[in-house]
Specification:
The chain is α/β, with parallel strands linked by helices and 400 residues long. Helices cover 59% and strands 8% of the residues. The protein folds into two domains: 21-234, no CATH class; 245-399, Rossmann fold.
Length: 400
């Protein structure tokens, strides 16, 4: 089996159909089932956390449902990465932290540090027995998990979210923390089972993709990033759904709307003639069949801008530069949730759209342009609710 045949699309929202419409029905069903589990298992924990924050004048930037999801996310990371965090030595953590800082350096220094960080991190996850190692639920265990997440250089945004729970657990004590984290882990496992049934058809190739990762990514900086389990894909999709729910009203009240798309959507690839600007790249319309070009045309019709970002770290350029701006971010599940958390941290109301499939060099030796569901984009932008003719208008535009 060639690496190209395995690594082409570890996820696809088409799942054998001609579009991704069914995915948006299934993710809603998944969210409804997940909410029931979270309410039954985690409501009392989240309510106690909210009360603690209120009593200590701590401003929460997350609504109740988002906090429920954060609790599940802690459980998910514990289930999938707790063993690796437990086995990671202090020396390894120290080196990886230094490399994570150096990766931002200019030139070869940054590139070499990033590659070394990826190699060390992936090598630390090569031993299957480490995945099954037991990281005891508790304050110390959560601290160790957070430190490991930060050291990988891939999970800093999620680690920042987890950090805000630490003072609460320190206040409530080890007994409460042990029970709470056990409940989080159990909820994550239940949700993973439902996700497999409802969303498994969209991530059917993840397992085979993972089995080939070390053959093709063992000397690359993205080794950790692409080593995501099927359940982690599903939990990220769920997180994006909840961000959309909780941030929608704030987003719709903004006067300026922006769509951020990744470079992997370019039809022309490296030959793309997009112009470099302060906030990313702007399409110049070099190819009529490029979806970025088509989305830019739709944006002109409905008053939203389209910007191309090469990397999710470029989100920082939007901080404090544009007031009253809402952003719709399009990305693969592996980075979408982290990007949503980053925009939230920057105080930018955001909506998320999952790429229909992955197509960049991180996932395949033969990159192919990705795409997004235009109808879902219209929902995120709030256009569908105010313009019932949007679908026909969009079809007419795309047919040009």
């Amino acid at each position: 089996m060639s690496s190209a045949s395995v690594l082409t699309k570890p996820f696809t929202l088409f799942a054998g159909s001609g579009n991704s419409d069914n995915y948006y029905r299934d993710i809603e069903i998944f969210a409804i089932h997940s909410e029931t589990i979270m309410e039954e298992n985690l409501a009392s924990i989240v309510e106690a956390f909210e009360q603690y924050c209120n009593e200590n004048a701590i401003v929460l930037n997350s609504a109740y449902k988002e906090l429920l999801f954060e609790a599940v996310l802690i459980g998910s990371f514990w289930n999938h990465h707790g063993g690796y965090a437990y086995e990671a030595s202090d020396a390894l953590i120290s080196v990886m932290k230094q490399l994570a800082r150096l990766r931002k350096a200019e030139g070869n220094t940054g590139k070499i540090a990033d590659t070394a960080r990826g190699i060390l991190g992936l090598n630390s996850m090569q031993k299957e027995e480490h995945k099954g190692s037991f990281l005891k639920p508790g304050i110390e265990g959560l601290q160790k998990l957070i430190v490991w997440m930060e050291a990988t250089g891939e999970f800093q945004r999620e680690a920042r979210v987890f950090n805000k729970w630490l003072p609460f657990f320190a206040e409530t004590g080890e007994g409460f923390t042990f029970i709470a984290i056990c409940s989080m882990r159990n909820s994550a496992m239940q949700i993973a089972e439902i996700g497999k049934k409802l969303l498994g058809k969209y991530t059917a190739e993840v397992s085979s993709f993972q089995s080939e990762i070390r053959k093709t990514h063992h000397l690359r900086e993205d080794g950790i990033s692409v080593n995501r389990s099927e359940a982690e894909y599903h939990i990220a999709m769920l997180g994006a759904y909840f961000i959309n729910q909780e941030e929608k009203e704030k987003f719709l009240t903004t006067s300026r709307k922006v769509l951020l798309v990744p470079a992997c959507m370019k039809m022309a690839g490296k030959h793309c003639k997009a112009e470099n600007k302060v906030f990313g790249e702007r399409c110049t319309g070099c190819q009529s069949n490029c979806q970025i070009n088509q989305l830019s045309a739709i944006g002109k019709m409905h008053q939203f801008e389209v910007w191309i970002l090469k990397h999710s770290s470029d989100l920082s350029v939007w901080q404090d530069t544009l007031k009253n701006t809402g952003i719709v971010g399009a990305a693969c599940p592996a980075t979408l949730l982290a990007g949503g958390y980053e925009l939230k941290r920057l105080g930018i109301p955001a909506q998320c759209v999952v790429l229909d499939h992955c197509g960049c060099k991180h996932w395949t030796e033969n990159p192919a342009p990705s795409s997004i569901n235009v109808s879902e984009l219209m929902v995120r932008m709030g256009i569908m609710e105010v313009n019932n003719n949007i679908f026909q208008q969009t079809k007419d535009l795309l047919a040009v």
